[in-house]
Design brief:
Layout lengths: L2 H10 L3 H24 L9 H13 L7 H19 L1
């Protein structure tokens, strides 16, 4: 079990510290995902990768029901897509 999956499991059980410990582990990968999402957007986007990561992360930690690392990043990609749609 990866450290990310372990923290997700702990967060699902209600461990608030696990959710806080998760961000440093996933931040770089979330930034890459955000940059990829933004690369497909029209010029003039008001969000940057950092803002998109932070907005998506806030949505993700509100409902920690992710089965594993892959599920978490799939949910992150979906959250980012929805944020970009809402922002458009």
């Amino acid at each position: 079990m990866t450290p990310v999956t372990q923290l997700l499991e702990a967060a699902r059980r209600g461990d608030r510290q696990a959710a806080a410990d998760l961000l440093p582990l996933v931040y770089a990968e979330l930034r890459k995902l955000a940059a990829a999402k933004l690369a497909g957007e029209k010029p003039g986007q008001t969000l940057d990768a950092t803002a998109l990561v932070h907005e998506a992360y806030l949505r993700l930690v509100g409902t920690p029901v992710y089965a594993n690392r892959g599920h978490f990043f799939a949910a992150a990609a979906e959250a980012m897509r929805r944020i970009l749609v809402e922002n458009a």
